[in-house]
Amino acid sequence: MFKSILKYLTKKEWGLIVIIGIINVIQVWLNLKIPEYMGIITRYITNSSYITPGDPLFIGKDEVMNQVYSYGELMILCSIGSLITTIVICYIASRVASRLSQDCRSRMFNRVDSFSMGDINKFSIASLITRSTNDVTQVQMIFTFGLQLIIYAPMLAIGALFKITVANYEWTLATSMAMLLLVVMFVIVMKAVIPKFKKMQTLTDNVNDRARENLMGLPVVRAYNAEKYQEEKFERANDELVKTQLYTTHGMAVMFPFIMVIMNCLMLAIYWIGAIIIGRINPADFASMQDYGEAVGASIGNMIVFSSYAMQIMMAVMMLLILFIMLPRAQVAGRRIYEVIETEPSIKDGGVVEPDTGLKGTIEFKNVSFKYPGASDYVLKDISFSAKQGETIAFIGSIGSGKTTLVNLVPRFYDVSEGSVLVDGVDVRNYKLESLYNKIGYIPQKSVLFTGTVTSNVAFGENGKEQATEEDVKTAVRIAQGQDFVENMKDGYDSEIVRGGANLSGGQKQRVSIARAVCRKPEIYIFDDSFSALDYKTDRALRTALKKETRGVTSMIIAQRIGTIMDADKIVVLDEGKVMGIGKHRELLSTCSIYKEIAMSQLSEEELAI
Fold it and tell me: Which residues form the ABC transporter domain (predicted)?
């Protein structure tokens, strides 16, 4: 899966990765030289201790110290060089990993931005949030550490192993046994924890989903004293995540002490074997004390050098094991990111920008049927009607009759399963999406406002025309009957609106949403029960202003109140996804029993003018 994500790296970043590889070679060479110099110093000191002052080969203490200082300086230079290369590698790796995570987040955001509602429901909002935050962080971490270790650790292990192949076979055998134990222990632990690592991201989705649900429904939760119930739901999801995390953490907690024990035992074995090797050296076998000293010095030096290289091998193996520990969860995260980025939106862009039919603001449904993706039952069945330019067509019916689903087919939030929806004589599936949206002023059932000001919310978005002016904003707010409350706010049209419009009432949010659609100057308005929070007086005044000020614009209105739609040019009555009647208010009162029943439940016979 990482192979798929790697394709998002640019040529510049691949160049930086090559530079990391080159610097890693230098870093490994510097680290491998340090034990060599340490062994030379050790042998030099040991040899000199066996040469007496009267010996012709005697070197004074000052000369010995000069040699120690000379090689010691080389060791320090190698250490400083290793430090500098490590810092440079960390810096470059962090840059590459951060850029990759930035690109993944941007790609995911842009892809989700092009999703239909069905595509979003396929993943769920909580999962999409987790994928663009936690999952991206997991991938960033594995790339940051991976770029530092994936080249360095194997090269260091191979280089150190090459250095010790000429040493005593007993030391080599001890190191090999330690490495084998390390690998076996790692395989056992990872076999137990990898399935849990893979499960962890899904459990994080569940926790986010519970938290989001509770925060969005907090007023209802409090009103029904359901805090304990919600806490228990959250705790169940949270406990499952914690148990999984503890399981994996315990596995890691068991492994690392064992690693330290193995490393310490290896050091002990190296010195124990070294002591045996030195004990085997018999002074009687040598012609002079100098030869004997050289043999002892060489053995001690080899022991120190070997122990250093053995530790480098073990550290390299341990770094790789740590990388492999992080890998399973990051693989799952990478797969989830790739799944979103590579998901093709179900709503495809058409090619029509402006139809040549000569029509404007017309809507026609031809034998439209619709069912949600994966569902077996149709939500809408064989719907047919039309609306001419400037007409107001209203939809009414019981809850779940398919009203919102029907109007959502016009801006292609979903595509029809059967039949066709025509705007200005052209099937909406043939429109370029941007051009289709430019024709529509959409006011959703639940008012959606964004962080900013009144002006930024009313002049929100682009519609292919000139940017909305201050006068356009004020006119739209006036038509939406929001002028009084907006101008009474502290900063008027520049007053701040917090996230979700939490500092406005329901009616105020609806009027700002309606003003946003009016400011767009569209051909078609879609009001999805957008007058429900308004009082009757404001509702009436708003609809009168809309009819007067936006003459020639077609309106689709969903409403539960008869008073809102009784003046519509055409009313469509829906029941269980079927059209039960189409006509004006007076016609339906006499021809459609469902409409009459709804009307009689809200208004008296006098008010209905029966």
Answer: 363-601
pLDDT confidence band for 57 (50 / 70 / 90): very low
Domains and their CATH numbers in the chain: 2-341 (1.20.1560.10), 354-431+560-610 (3.40.50.300)
Of 477, 478, 439, residue with least CA distance to 456: 477
Rounded to 5°, angle at Cα 370 from 368 and 371: 165
Give the pLDDT confidence of 291-325 residue by residue, as tens digits.
666 666 666 767 777 777 777 777 887 788 778 77
Q: Where would I find the H helices in 61-151?
A: 61-113, 117-123, 125-130, 136-149
What is the predicted pLDDT for the residue at 52? 47
Phi-psi region of 505 (alpha: psi -120 to 50; beta: other; left: phi over 0): beta
Q: Is 485 helix (H, G, I), strand (E, B) or coil?
A: helix
Q: Pairing state of beta strands 418-423 and 426-427?
A: antiparallel
Q: Which residues pair with 555 in a beta bridge?
A: 392, 525
Handedness of CA 109, 114, 116, 119 (dihedral sign): negative
Rounded to 5°, angle at Cα 604 from 598 and 606: 130
- Beta strands of 195-234 (E only): which ranges? none
- Taking CA atoms, 426 is separated from 315, 347, 353, in Å, by 68, 16, 11
Residue with token string 């080389």:
74
Long-range contacts of the stretch 189-194 (C-beta < 8 A, 24+): 189/251, 189/252, 189/254, 189/255, 190/324, 190/325, 190/328, 192/251, 193/247, 193/248, 193/251, 193/252, 193/328, 194/328
Tell me the residue ranges of DSSP E strands in 424-569. 426-427, 440-443, 452-453, 496-497, 524-528, 554-558
Q: How far is CA 147 from the centre of its chain?
A: 21
SS3 211: helix
CA 353-359-365 angle, to 5 degrees, is: 90
DSSP 133: I
Token pair belonging to 281: 């050296």
pLDDT in tens, 264-282: 888 888 778 777 777 776 6
Res 364: pLDDT: 93
How much is the average pLDDT of 147-153? 84
